[in-house]
Amino acid sequence: MQEVHAIPGARFLDPVVLHRIGNLELVSRAVVDGFINGLHKAPYFGASVDFAEHRGYVPGDDVRRMDWRVWARTDRLYIKEYEAESNMNFSVLLDVSKSMDYGSRGITKLDYARILGACLTNLVHHQRDRVGFAAFDDDIVEFVPPSAKHMDTVVHVMDRLKAGKPGSLKAPLHKLAEHFGRRGILALISDFYEDPDTVLEAVSPLRFRGNDIIVFHVLDRTELEFGFADASPFEDLETGEQMPVVPEAFREEYRSLVKAHIEALRSSFSKVRVDYTMVDTSQPLDHALFRYLSSRSRSMKSR
Amino acid sequence: MSFLAPLFLIALAGLAIPVLLHLTQREKKQIVFFPSLMFVRRIPYQSVRRRKIQNWLLLAIRLTALALIIAAFARPLLTRPDAPIAIGQGARELVVLLDVSYSMGYGDRWSRAQSAARDALRGLSPSDRGSVVLFASGADIATRSTGEVNALTATVDAAKPGAGSTRYAPALKVATSLLTDSQLPRREVVMISDFQRTGWQGAEGTALPSGTVLTPVAVQGGSDRPNVTVTAASLARSTFATQERAVITAGLTNHADAPVSGMTLTLEMNGLAVGTRPVSLEPGASGSVTFDAVTIGQRNMRGSLKLSDDALAADNVRHFVLSPADPLRVTLVERGGGNSLYVTRALAIGEAPKFDTVTKGPDALSDDDLRRSAVVVLNDVPVATALARRLARYVEGGGGLLVAAGQRASWPSDVEVLPASIGAPVDRTRGPASRVTGLELGHAVFEAFRAPRSGDFSSIRVYGYRQVAAVADAQVLARFDGGAPAVLEKRLGAGRVLMWSSTLDQSWTDLPMKPVFLPFIHRAATYLAAYVPPQPSLTVGQVLDPTTAGAHKGQAPPRVLLTPSGRRMDLTDEGADVLELTEQGFYELRGEGNEAAVVAANVDPAEADPTPIDTAEIVSAAGAGAASASAATNATPLTPEAREKSQRIWWYLLFAGVLLLGLDTLVSNRLTKA
Residue B494 is part of which domain span? Predict the structure, then answer.
C-alpha cells in the first residue's frame, strides 16, 4: 500500500537518503522546494500591503500612514495599521550533546536534527526572514545571530557541527535567552533527556522574552521501542556509566517510562503554549516540516 | 577428613571451566551504547539484582552438585586419630547362627528360635550389617553380609528345621570366615540352638576373631509330651528253604522324664503295615521290639519302622532297604585231584557275604566265567600265555586273582600280572619247617588277626614253597622265617592280585588245618572282590557316591537321583558325583531302563538326645566373650578402607549431588518460563 504523505513528493525525502547527499544546503533546498511560499504571516504589524486595523493617532506617528478618508468622514485622526510580513527573526537552537550522536538506522539524531534545522532555515529564508543559529551542549558551542544574510553561514556552521560533550539545557538556554532580545521564532531541537520540569524551566527565559518556541523532540526508533534482544551491559553515551540490562525484562517498563516522559513534555509545553513535536528519526522529514507549518498557521488563526 | 581416592579431586579443576567460560564470555560481550540510561536507571534496580542473583544461584547449584559428586568419587572419610574407635562403638557385623537340626522341631522350639533370630536382626542399625547362617551337621550362609534387615528376616521366616543333626563347629567356622571378611569395628555372633551336648565335639579350631561377642540363645524344653526315638533297625538274615528271610528288631529310647506307655511301633514293608507292637518304656530307658520274620522276595524292599506321634516327629521313623544277599562268585581253577577241597569247604561257610564257588580246569575257563566271577583262584596250576593275557584283562577290569604257587604253578614271564615271578621250589621237609612271620597286620587281609589271640599264623608249618622275587610295585604282606615272601599283593588296573607262595592244600603246608585258614580265605576273597557289605540305611549328612551306592556287579551307573521330597537330580551333571544326604526317606537311583537302586536315609538318633551343654563351654572354646576393655584396647586400628566403608559418606554426597542436579533442573525450568 502506498504511503500517503502530507506533501506530494515527500516520500522521496527519506532522511537516510538525504543524509547521503552530504551537502546540507542542497538537502535543505531539495526539501523546501515545493513548499508553498507565504504560508505563514508575521506576528507583527508593520509596513505591508495587507491592512490589519485602524488605531487612533498619537503624536509622533508617521503622518503618511494617516487615513485621510476616515478623517474626512469623521473628523478624527486614525492611523492605518498593516500586517507585517517577512521581517521576523528565526533561529534554530540545536542540542549537540553527546546523546544526540546516536542512531540505530544509519542516521544519527544529530544528523536528522541538522537536516531538519537546515530545512527550516531554508524555508524561512525563502520568506525573506532573518535566520540565526545556536548550538549548545552544556554551554553555547556555536552562535550565529539572526540576519537575512546569514543563511549560508548558518548552513555552513550546522554542517561542521560534531557532538562532543555531555549536555544540559538550563545553563546554555538561559545564556542564549540574553541573545534573543528581539521577538522571533525559536526552533529548539533536542532529545530532552532531562526531567520535564527542568526542561520547562530551561525554556522559560526564552519564552518570557516573547519568542515563539517550537520544540522538536528528536528520538531514535530504538529509544522508543527498546528493541534489544540480548542481555548486555549498556553504556550511557554522556556519562559513560555502565549497567547490565536484560532488555526482555526491561522493555515494557522502559516503554511506559518513555511514553510518560513524552506525555509529560507535551502537556508541560502545551500549558505554556509551546509547540511540541515528537520526531522519530525513522520518519521522513516532511512530517516534522508539516507539523511546523500547520502549527504556524494555527497560531496565526488563533491570534 | 581424608580421601581414599584423592586423585578424583583433580576433576574439581574442571569446575573452573564453566566459570571461566562465563567470565570470558562476559568480557567479550558487546557493550551497547545508549544515549541515556535515564529511564533504565529508574527501573527498580532490585529486579535486576534479583535476576542476577538467581543466575548466580543456578551456577552455584550446578557447581556444588558437581563438586559433591566428585567428592563422592574421591570417597571421603572422617579420621579422628585422637579417639580410636573402640569396640562397642560404630557399626557392627552380626552373624545369626540358626540351628536347623531336626531336634529344633521339638514342641515350639522352632517358633521361639525364629522370634529370637528376628529380635536379634531387628536390633541392627542402618550402618550395621548382618548375615544369617543356617546350620545342622554343616553350615550354609543363607544370607551373606547385608544391611537389609528385611532380606535377613525373610531368610529366617523361610527357614525350617531339616533332617540334619547339630554340630556347632562348622557353624562357628563359617561365622569366623564371615567376620574375618568384615571391615566393621564391632563383631557379634548370635547362636540360636537347643544346645545339645551331642553337637559339641570339642573346640575343633573354632576360635572366633578377637573381640567378637558370642551370644548363645538357648531354646530348650518346649513340650511336656513324651519323646521316644527309634534308634536302630537291625536285620537278622536267615535262609529258610531257599527263601531268604530277615528278622527286624527296632531299638527304642525314651528321652522324656516320664514313663511311656500306650505308644505303638509299626513295621511297614513297601508301604504296607506288616506288624504293630505296643511300646512301653521307663524314663530314660532303652528297649527293643522284634517283629516276625519278613521274607525277602525282591530287591530293594523298602522297610520303615514308624512310632506313633510324640513331641518330636522326625526321630519316630527309621527306614531301611532289604535286598536278597548277593553271593560272591569264586571260580577255582585247578588241575583236578581235589586240591581245592579245603578252599571250597571254607567258602561254603558264611552268610555275609555268601560265596558261590565254581571249579574249572584252566582250559575250560571261558570269558563268561571270568565276567561273572568276583574272584578267580589259580590253585597251583600252570598258566598258558593266552590264559594269562585273558586273566590280565580280567584283573585290569576290576577282578580279583588269588594265586597259590605250588609244585605245578607256572606263569608266562611276558605277562606282568603277578606280584612276583615264580622261581624254584624250596624244600623244607628236612630240618625245621618254615614258619610264616612278619605279617602286615595293617592290611585288610590280616587286620582281623591284629588283636591278641585272634589267630596265630606262626603255628603254621610250611614244608615247601616256591622261591619268588617280588616285582617293583608289589607289596609283601607276609614272609617265611627265612625272609622269603610268603604273601604278596599287587594292584593292576581296578583289580587286585594276591599270591600265596605255597599250596592251599596239605601237600606243602598244614595251613588248611589251622583255625586261621577260614578267616584268611574269607578275608582274601572279600578283599579281592572289593566287597562292601550292603547297608540297610545311611544317615542324613553322610555322603552318597551314586556310582557305587546300591549298585551290584554288572549294573550300569545311575543317571538320575530322586530325593524323598520328589526332587529330580541329573547325575550326569558336573559336580553331581558326590551327594550329601539332606532328607529323611528313600533316595532312588535310576539308570537306563527301569533298574533302580534305593538308599534309605535316616536322621541321626543321637540328635534326639536332649542332654544340654553348658553354653559357657562353647563361648569359652570359641575364644569369644563379653567385649572386654582389654579387647578394646588391643583392637588394631581400622584400615582407612574399613573406616570409609563403615562411614559411607560417599553415599550421602552422591545423593545430595543428584538431588541438587534435580533442583537445578527445576530452577532452570522455572527461570526459562519466567
Answer: 328-528
> Residue B32 and residue A233: Cβ atoms within 8 Å?
yes
Condensed to tens digits (0 to 9), the pLDDT of residues B375-434 reads: 999 999 999 999 999 999 999 988 999 999 998 899 998 888 999 999 999 888 888 889
Looking at chain B, which residue has its C-alpha nearest residue A245? B48
DSSP B556: P
Q: Which residues of A touch B29 (CB under 8 A)?
A: 230, 232-233
Is the same domain home to B139 and B108? yes
Distance from the first to the final alpha carbon of chain A:
40
When scoring A109, A192, A221, A236 by the number of chain B Cβ atoms within 10 A, the one with the most, hence best to mutate, is: A236
CB-CB neighbors (< 8 A) of A220 in chain B? 35
Which of A191, A220, A242 is opposite residue B31, by nearest beta carbon? A242
Residue B568 sits in the same domain as residue B497: no
A10-40+86-302 CATH, one of 3.40.50.2000, 3.40.50.410, 3.30.190.30, 3.90.1300.10: 3.40.50.410
The counts of H helices and E strands in chain A are: 10, 10
Q: Which residues of A touch B52 (CB under 8 A)?
A: 244
Which stretches of chain A are assigned E, i.e. beta strand?
A: 51-56, 78-82, 89-95, 130-136, 140-147, 184-190, 212-219, 232-236, 242-245, 275-280
Residues of chain B positioned with their CB less than 8 A from the CB of A99: 35-36
Quick check: is B379 in a domain? yes
Res. B30 pLDDT band, cuts 50 70 90: confident
Q: Are A95 and A86 in contact (CB under 8 A)?
A: no
**What are the counts of helices (DSSP H) followed by strands (DSSP E) for chain B?**
14, 33
The ipTM assigned to this model is 0.77
Nearest CA in chain A to B41: A243
Residue A2's pLDDT is 38
Considering the domain architecture, whether residues B596 and B660 belong to the same structural domain is answered as no
Residues of B with CB under 8 A from a CB of A: 29-43, 47-48, 51-52
User: Do residues B524 and B403 share a domain?
Assistant: yes
**Amino acid found at B103:** S
* Grid cell digits, residue A126: 525563502
Counted across chains A and B, CB pairs separated by less than 8 A come out at 72
Q: B413 and B509: one domain?
A: yes
